[in-house]
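Bumping my old thread because nobody answered last time. Still need a sequence for this structure:
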């Protein structure tokens, strides 16, 4: 079967596509790699159904698209990790495969994934692509939603565009978890997640399209008082996450969803915390810090 990509919603033909005619258990051909990369430039979210892959196969797939990140964004101690450092553990399980207690510190920290965010925006060089593979999902809930930040920019009024075009924001996981009231950070973690600076408006390296670079990890705007900055950021996020800009992915076992963090925000939705939700993520690093990339 020939690889093809079809829009998930024909009413939005440039947002979220489904890839057909590809087997991620096998080494991709150069033509397949190019087709997926071109699809990412166009759709920014790609869905691959019925991909019963293991971690090695998932990692090999993601390696086709640039340097890989290590999974350093959680608070699990090395001795408590369930997966290798190449794989992000997006689950509610401990290293023995048991569901984390409701008040477990690791679980409370992971609730930040339910806020709109962009992966690794708390790093000096943030994420490019993320690929999330569903290994086991709950009976209901636990969807992942994606907000198109290109459409968010395209629909801003000119006055707001002029206001935000050259803004620089500061990002940290300290900020995003603080929104939820999680402040239980060690001194080492506070150093690890010291704030980093990013553009608020980005130009996509391949497509040239502009997008807002928003995230729950943002704690302020350089040169603005914090309350005023957060009020503006809230307004921008409300604009960017209107339902017409959002694709909600309802997981099926063995789905793999890949997205471009330079053009999307995403969030997980609530589910019964006593059920297993086990997804594995691989992540490509971006080419450089955002302030070293061409601006808007």
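Sorry it took so long. Here it is:
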């Amino acid at each position: 079967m020939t690889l093809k990509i079809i829009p998930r919603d024909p009413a939005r033909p440039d947002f979220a596509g489904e890839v057909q005619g590809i087997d991620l258990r096998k080494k991709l051909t150069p033509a397949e790699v190019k087709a997926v990369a071109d699809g990412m430039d166009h759709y920014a979210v790609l869905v691959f159904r019925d991909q019963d892959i293991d971690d090695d196969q998932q990692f090999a797939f993601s390696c086709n698209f640039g340097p890989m990140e290590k999974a350093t964004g959680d608070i699990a101690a090395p001795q408590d990790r369930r997966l290798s450092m190449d794989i992000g553990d997006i689950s509610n399980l401990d290293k023995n495969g048991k569901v984390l207690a409701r008040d477990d510190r690791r679980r409370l920290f992971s609730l930040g994934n339910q806020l709109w965010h962009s992966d690794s925006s708390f790093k000096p060089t943030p994420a490019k692509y993320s690929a999330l593979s569903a290994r086991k999902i709950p009976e209901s809930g636990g969807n992942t939603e994606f907000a198109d930040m290109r459409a968010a920019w395209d629909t801003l009024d000119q006055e707001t565009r002029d206001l935000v075009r050259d803004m620089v924001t500061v990002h940290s996981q300290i900020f995003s978890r603080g929104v939820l009231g999680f402040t239980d950070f060690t001194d080492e973690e506070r150093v690890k997640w010291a704030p980093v600076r990013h553009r608020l408006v980005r130009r996509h390296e391949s497509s040239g399209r502009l997008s807002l670079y928003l995230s729950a990890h943002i704690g302020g705007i350089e040169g603005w008082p914090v309350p005023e900055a957060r009020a503006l950021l809230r307004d921008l996020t409300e604009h960017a996450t209107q339902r017409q800009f959002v694709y909600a992915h309802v997981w099926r076992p063995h789905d793999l969803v890949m997205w471009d963090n330079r053009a999307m925000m995403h969030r997980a939705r609530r589910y019964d915390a006593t059920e297993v939700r086990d997804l594995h993520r691989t992540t490509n690093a971006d080419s450089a810090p955002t302030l070293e990339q061409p601006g808007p």
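The chain has a mean pLDDT of 97. Let me know if any region looks off to you.
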